[in-house]
Amino acid sequence: MADWIAHIGDWFHAVFVQQFDLWVLLGFVAQALFTMRFLVQWLASERARRSVVPASFWTFSILGGTLLLIYAIKRKDPVFIAGQAAGLFIYFRNVWFIVNERRQHRSAD
């Protein structure tokens, strides 16, 4: 049992300490931004007492997704690259819908 605990401790040290650099820091910042989108969506929905997706959800999606894509490219992870690149297309498309809707509302006023 002690060997198993030591092995896990060694693994955590190798993963979280030995390989820590600016790229890993960027990855953590990117993941934090990406996670913020869920927080803002949850808070907006709680306030409205219904499901709401605020524009800031898409802002955090784009910021976090872009940084995660950069991180994935640096790490040369094809699965991560494909997932983040596809996600960014969807995030930008939703922002496009929001911008067009706001533009239509302004011209209708």
From TrEMBL:
Membrane-spanning segments: 20-40, 52-73, 79-99
Pfam families: LAB_N
A GO cellular component annotation in the UniProt record: membrane
Molecular-function GO term, any one: lipid-A-disaccharide synthase activity
Ranges for domain Lipid A biosynthesis N-terminal: 26-97
InterPro entries for the chain: Lipid_A_biosynth_N, UCP028440_lipidA_biosyn
UniProt record, GO biological process: lipid A biosynthetic process
Record key words, sorted: Membrane, Transmembrane, Transmembrane helix
Protein name as catalogued: Lipid-A-disaccharide synthase-like uncharacterized protein
Organism of derivation: Kaistia hirudinis
Lineage: Bacteria, Pseudomonadati, Pseudomonadota, Alphaproteobacteria, Hyphomicrobiales
